[in-house]
Amino acid sequence: MSSISQVTVIHGAGTAAEAEQGSVYASGISAETTGAVGLWFGTISLPPGRRTSAHFHAAHETALYMTSGVEIDLYTGAHLERCQSVRPGDYIFIPAGLPHVAVNRSDVAAVFMGARTDPNANESVVMLAELDEEFARREGSAAADKRHGDH
Q1: Smallest Cα–Cα separation from 94: which of 44, 136, 50, 34?
Q2: Among 27, 45, 61, 142, which lies 20 to 30 A Cα-Cα from 112?
């Protein structure tokens, strides 16, 4: 049971910040904003023509709902061998420890509402540099090479 004894209302998401993997997060509910101990909830976006770097979340599950955008490709698996298309209205569940990359090939941002079992704004992310390089070689497209705004 939480030691928090009152409801907290957050008016609008906090300041957006680019995460290490390349997506843009804005915390609504987090350890930092409310003292939450088991939940983070906020918005996550992937800018147009960009992708995340290969990574996994070491110790938490993630749930997402795509609210706007066109479509992203979500690559998952030990070698990012599985690809699923995600469109507005779709839900995504990403278990802890699963390597993944999200690619937004469209010309508009892909926006999600997201929740995860790590309450911290700076989540437990593990970057996978070798897998990222393998993915970029295999993908071979301009969109695949645009990580963190690199052109």
Answers
A1: 44
A2: 142
Instruction: Give the pLDDT of the chain (151 residues) as one tens digit per residue.
Output: 567 789 999 998 778 889 999 999 999 999 999 999 999 999 999 999 999 999 999 999 999 999 999 999 999 999 999 999 999 999 999 999 999 999 999 999 999 999 999 999 888 899 999 999 999 999 885 444 455 444 3
CATH of 24-141, one of 3.90.1150.10, 3.30.1330.10, 2.60.120.10, 3.90.79.10: 2.60.120.10
Read off the tokens for 41.
């909830």
Measure the CA–CA gap between 81 and 132, rounded to whole angstroms: 12
